[in-house]
Specification:
The complex is a heterodimer of chains A (about 350) and B (about 350). With about 350 residues, chain A is mainly α. Chain A has 15 helices and no strands. Chain A has a single domain, classed as ABC transporter involved in vitamin B12 uptake, BtuC (Orthogonal Bundle). The longest helix of chain A is centred in the N-terminal third of the chain and has 35 residues. The radius of gyration of chain A is 20 Å and the shape is globular. By secondary structure, chain B is of the alpha/beta class. Chain B has two domains: about 150 residues, 3-Layer(aba) Sandwich (Rossmann fold); about 130 residues, Rossmann fold. In chain B, α3 links the parallel β3 and β4. The longest helix of chain B has about 30 residues. Classes of the chains: A mainly alpha (about 350), B alpha/beta (about 350). At the A-B interface, α4 and α8 of A face α10 of B.
Amino acid sequence: MSSTAVARPSTPPRVLGQARIFPIAVAVIGAIGIAGFLWSLSIGPQDISLGNRIGGIVSPNHSTAQLIVHLVRLPRALEAALVGGSLAMAGVVMQSITLNPLGAPEIMGVNAGAALLVTLSVTVWTSLGGQSVLVLAFAGGAIASVFVFAFAQFGRGGLSPLRLALAGVTVTALLFSLMQGIFILHVETASTLMFWLVGGVNYASWNDIHMVWPWLAGGTVVALLLAAPLNVLALGDDMARGLGQNVTRTRFIGGAVVVVLAGACVGIAGPVAFLGLIVPHIVRRLVGVNHFFVMPLSALTGATLFVWADLGSQFISSVDQTPSGVVTALIGAPIFIYLARREKMTG
Amino acid sequence: MTRWRIVAAATAVLCLLMAVAGGASAATTTAKAKKFDPTCGAARAAVRTVNGTLGSTVIHGTPKRIVALEFSFVDDLTQVGLKPIGIADDNNPNALIPPIRKLVGSYTSVGLRATPNLETIASLHPDLIIADATRDAKIYSKLQAIAPTIALDSLQQAYLPLLHSAIVIGQAVNKCGAMRVRVQQDKLIMARVKKVVPKSYATKRAMFVVSDKSVFNVHSSLAYTPSLLNAIGIGSANVLKPGKGVNSYIVMSLEDFISNNPDIMFVADYFPGTAVVDKFQQSPLWDTVSAVKNKQVYQVNTFLWSKARGLLAGELIAQQAVHLLLHKYVSIALPKVASA
């Protein structure tokens, strides 16, 4: 994993080449994503005809088949796309504002902080539901990221990518152990909370989507608008300041975007791991470090990856539901390894 | 000559009748003389080897200080007049169903069933520990170091294996006869309950689901409650074949549940109002389920239906099921049985 992939821009010919790759990548990954989306509408315990699937998407009547498509399969596929895309974008922003290739909501404590407070809503504050849980997720993510940044600055040497990563891993481990302690003390729900802890969209509903889409939309817009400032920030703090950028403000806004995107995703799908870490690296190997390309393509790639992960999870057991998060790394890791090896071989 | 033949034949018949009567009388006299022995017999009272799921244990005498690490074991012990001194009650005395709590009286909590406190157990100086073969497998050797330990089936087990566990508990506590009688009574009670259940219910598809905020967890036919319902003549919506690695519980999505389409539902809801089942109820698809259309969705107590699994608990579940479904009250008073 090369730190120059985040900190330094590519040379011009490579930039031009990667600019040409961008629309191809969008088309190919988009096609794969759409294929996965459509396939996920067709699999399930009930055999539903193509006509009913189309009807279920466009204008469902009251037949069970179309209601299943409209109320179960469609929101599940859509939620997978939204969560995957949002977590991937959160990863891009996190890695850019921390100048750290290991920056990801799941490593920097954001997911763990959100998950801890959501866990409390399931075990202790059980009357809470809906938007309250979402607010808890935001609060947890924000508090955790503040802790991470604070710990990373302890001692001599100040903030560095390594210290930030270590602080993130430490805080994440602490928060997860607190969560597990809560599970143990609430044994009635412990085993089923483990299902939630892996992360997934198995119980997706239109209610969840209606609840989070404003936050995800807002976070996405701000993330896309941050493309230019993040390109400048990638040159280093001194250079960025020299070019007139308010580095602190950029980092603050970026941090807020990460908390909103990751917190909303954890609130509805649990702490899905891997997407925020790996997808930005996969995308950078395709289109370079220009955030004008990286940001939208990461959203698309993350959405595609999680849709296919959810699809794959439905084939693991013919009897049981498997959380989608189980499959995410199974799909993403080989892709990343292939791309890393290809870059090594081509220099 | 003919007259003498008649007399001889009559005499022979009379003798035969007297012999039979005498034998019966002798037998009766013998039966009266044989008193019911609630223990395991003189030969096994001092030392006996009891076979549990994780291995055999040698037990000396009659244990008086018993620690039970599952609710079903507590239930079974109370049914033969014993009170465990230590119970893994998940730090919640209300987890014991009220009739059992009343029978047990005071006890020391040894913590969670998932992770019982070994120090607390040791401090009680037990002379017998009854552990769960699944949950406590990893600490079985540590428990054996504290006191003679027998590990039996409870978690994720069906009704019949739990009856077997009760029998083994009887052997362990030197109450073989008493427990055999109690198990026999349990079977008779179930037969009594089954009598009032119409035969058509055998082909009905009843679902027992435990729901919390994370999952919709359906208990299959391999789990306790559905297999008990099956024993009283109520069919299961989720029949699984036993096998290695087969889980008794099935996590279902909304579509899985709609496809399963049970005729009857017993719902144990941990978080009424905010659990997954409550979200399902808000969906228009909920109304397409047969159980909903037939108005046969029943809320049941989570501790009794999901966790208890003992002799008395099973009888209470059977009684409640019939009352909910058929509006009939069946007594679960203990029937008289011939001493085993």
